[in-house]
Amino acid sequence: MLHVDLDQFIAAVEVLRNPGLAGKPLIVGGRGDPTERAVVSTASYEAREFGVGSGMPLRIAARKAPDAVILPVDAPAYLAASEEVMATLRAQPGAVVQVIGWDEAFVGVTTDDPEAYARRTQEAVLGRTRLHCSIGIGDTLVRAKNATDFGKPRGTFRLTADNWLDVMGDRPTIALWGVGSRISKRLALLGIETVSQLAVADPDALTREFGPKMGLWYRQLGRGDGSAVVDDTPWIARGHSKETTFQADIVDPAEIERAARQLLDQVLDEVAADDRPVVGLGLKVRYAPFLTKTFTKKIPSTSDREVVIARALELVAKIEPARPIRLLGVRAEMAMPDDARGDHTPTRGGW
Fold first, then answer.
1. Which of 106, 189, 194, 259 lies most in the core, judged by the most C-beta atoms within 10 Å?
2. To the nearest 10°, the Cα dihedral for 173, 230, 75, 67?
3. Of 104, 243, 270, 306, which one is the catalytic site residue?
4. What does the radius of gyration of the chain's CA atoms come to, in whole angstroms?
């Protein structure tokens, strides 16, 4: 299986639209205004040399790379480019394509020479879209995904059971797909700091820390094991969410409720388009300066918009009074369709 990852995708799309940006430090985020509250969506390789990275506040990115070109996010343009790439992947001989984002997908294929197939795929994507990609080759989804990091940019790399620990063993656990900074810190408290240590970690210790499902899952990640099947079952949204960052903190209860209702209206319009009832709600609150709280609740299955709004406002009532808020987000979880396998859709580990 191959993991196809477009190189600096959003920045590359912007360069295609304006070739004069080629070779310049380029940052895309928010409305393109570093004086506003927004984060970096992507940074070109030239901008990354200044320490700019995705998720960084735009104002900090602008300070790190003062000569960078900063552009607003143009989601429709990136979606259109992504669809062209995915269509190209599906057109490859014998390809089964599992899309996992705008800029990446797994491709399952039977071939005696995966490197040659990968190179032909890169050429096809470049020829049709003028976008470069890196490709990881693996015998599981996890290994293919991690292999891509070693192929960047514009290259290929293969990770299998034969070389997994030789290549990955001494790397920190955060290098694994699915292990972020918080999980890696919790693993470190158990004395597990490298991939090889995680691969042979005590299952009982992991399940005590992370639970019976996730504890064993992290140990499996350490070995690079997992699903070896690329599944092209169409992705089905579990829910819809919207959030907004306020350019000035808000504290007035009426203003907070008004903002929550506006977000709910947008979310419930998307829910209505899916024609599935709501079964759960979530509220994300980021207090100034940067403390984030999340509230969730299950609700009886309903398609009644007013009922959902009323239950969501019960979560809004949990917001601490008189505490300034810089971000608000709402989410509605939907019932899965009857034909969803095991009440879920494809994930990073497959089915």
1. 106
2. 40
3. 104
4. 22
